[in-house]
Amino acid sequence: MKYIRMCLCAMLAVVLCSAFTLEKKEKPVYVFGVGASFKDSVVYFTEVQLLDSVALDNNGFLPGRVSYAYQMKNYLEYEKNKLDYTCAIYFSESRSKLEKEASKIYKRYEKGNTYVLKNIQTSDFSFRKPEE
Fold first, then answer.
1. How many CB atoms are located within 10 Å of the residue 94 CB?
2. pTM of the shown model
3. Which of 6, 23, 71, 94 lies 20 to 30 Å (CA to CA) from residue 58?
């Protein structure tokens, strides 16, 4: 009886310790950006990209999301010589959901033939994890 009680206590300790040491499995995070200006009719779209070694925080937000928008803004200013652009990024753990969102936004700008839509290839610009 004493032997069974000791075995049960040991198994309970192993189960409790392993339950608290389980690490959260990181899901990949995908992102794309949109750059638009009130002074220009050209709107820039990046491709949906995978961010390396990035995970969403507990609230479901992308840490350092402002710096990703500034990365795109800096690219447009220094590489394309497009000043006064406002850049927004969209992110998700699901690539298919993000591609649907990108398509929806692209169609919204496409409607009315008011804007000239230009795609930015991943070979030209890609988002990088900001240094902390």
1. 13
2. 0.77
3. 71
